[in-house]
Design a protein that fits this description.
This protein is of the alpha/beta class. Helix content is about 30%, strand content about 20%. It has ten helices and 15 strands. It has an eight-stranded mixed sheet, with no helix packed on it. The chain has a seven-stranded mixed sheet with strand order 5-4-3-2-13-14-15. Helix 7 runs parallel beside helix 10. The chain is globular, with a radius of gyration of 22 Å. The N terminus is likely disordered.
Length: about 425
């Protein structure tokens, strides 16, 4: 691969954009075009070089040599997020591989779909022109569950809440009714009725799944909130108190706390962007819309990085959610926080707890290397948490290899509690 200078700061990019825009007006057009062409080519090469291989921190680089699991797996929890944008007519290697793994695991397992189950905006009313597309989207996920004997749980994401717009509460309730009315009667949509949770499910003797709706926290439109709420947690304080109670009750067990939104992320929702987004910001909204807007692109990236909209960690409301989660988890040493939202695979170890991002169920995008991550990978795939009979817990990441599309094990680690 040809050497590329890696631009590590948006300020460097901003300087380049200013430098380009400040070319003397009397400069020859040919020279201007050459400069701009070099900038665009650097953008493409830079992005390609930093995003094709998995990242492992210093302690994880030799992970294969540290795999010494032994004994019998007594329960497996499959974690896949943002699976609601299938490519119809194409063979999906990831989902078909996952299907085979589910059938092997059988009734000693569960699969959790961690939100954004229906792109682009959840489940519309039956007479809506996009209803058929929404049903097809969810059907692509139900296909891998045929004859599966384990537990199936769906939780909502921001796209399921009508893309965080008005009417989101009705969209969530429609999706819940649709999924729980399918012939596969072991499917559960939680938390119920657009409530925030937490909801507790015992999966095995020493393994508990706790489910929350993180979009309830971020959603600024219609939702069950305050004195008129029918939920047990009517506001953020009650939510936090109920979550503390559930974690305290299960402090001697392994707990998987699942939500759509991550607390830590090296993806775009965490404020990290590839260089090309500084040049072609519109491509973030519509694939292949490569209109060069270098100055506006840097302004857009800067806004997302330092302020953010409600779906970004830098946003004040999202920060409040993260603070509540991390402070609530801080006294405990038995928690695995699982999430989607970012279209990649990531793993963080923070304050003796474990943070999983598995949001590349149907598409994948950029993730920054380093920045506190143990493992980070711009690839389609999913994660698995395996509980062994000796009470060990191992985390695995499976996904599609970029060159061949073949599904392989990307990372495996014994979780320390």
């Amino acid at each position: 691969m040809m050497p590329v200078v890696k631009l590590k700061s948006c300020f460097v990019c901003f300087f380049n954009c200013i430098a380009f825009s400040g070319l003397p007006i009397y400069a020859a057009w040919s020279k201007s075009i050459i400069y701009f062409g070099i900038l665009i080519l650097n953008c493409f090469f830079h992005t390609a070089c930093i995003s094709t291989q998995p990242y492992y921190n210093a302690g994880a680089k030799n992970w294969k040599a540290n795999v010494n699991d032994s004994g019998k797996v007594v329960y497996s929890v499959f974690l896949i997020g943002d699976a609601g944008m299938p490519k119809f007519g194409e063979y999906d290697t990831v989902k078909n591989f996952l299907r085979s793994k589910l059938h092997v695991a059988g009734n000693k397992s569960a699969i959790l779909f961690m939100g954004d189950n229906i792109y682009p905006a959840g489940m519309p009313p039956e007479n809506h022109k996009k209803r058929a597309a929404a049903e097809n989207s969810i059907a692509s996920q139900l296909e891998i569950l045929q004859d599966y004997k384990g537990e199936v749980v769906f939780i909502p994401g921001n796209h399921d809440w009508n893309r965080s717009r008005k009417g989101g509460q009705d969209y969530i309730i429609r999706q819940e009714k649709y999924l729980e009315g399918t012939p596969q009667n072991h499917i559960t949509f939680l938390p119920d009725s657009a409530c925030p949770g937490p909801v507790e499910l015992t999966l095995a003797e020493n393994l508990v799944l706790v489910l929350i709706d993180s979009e309830w926290w971020l959603h600024k439109h219609d939702k069950p909130y305050g004195d008129k709420s029918y939920c047990s947690a009517k506001n953020e304080e009650q939510f936090a108190n109920q979550l503390k109670a559930v974690l305290e009750k299960n402090k001697n067990k392994r707990v998987i706390l699942a939500a759509h939104h991550p607390v830590f992320s090296n993806g775009t929702h965490g404020g990290y962007f590839p260089f090309k987004d500084h040049i072609f910001p519109l491509a973030s909204f519509k694939k292949n819309l490569f209109v060069p807007l270098p100055l506006l692109g840097s302004i857009y990236v800067g806004y997302r990085k330092y302020f953010g909209h409600r779906q970004d960690i830098p946003n004040y409301k999202y920060k409040a959610y993260c603070k509540t989660i991390t402070s609530t988890l801080a006294p405990y040493r038995n928690i695995i926080y699982a999430s989607g939202h970012e279209h990649n695979l990531q793993y963080f170890n923070h304050a003796a707890n474990h943070y999983i991002v598995s949001g590349s169920g149907s598409k994948n995008y950029y993730v920054k290397r380093g920045a506190g991550a143990v493992y980070a990978h711009n690839a389609r795939g999913y994660a698995v948490v395996n509980l062994y009979e000796n009470n060990e817990v191992w985390l695995e990441y499976w996904g599609a290899e970029k060159a061949t599309g073949a599904v392989q094990l990307f990372y495996k680690i014994k979780l320390q509690f």
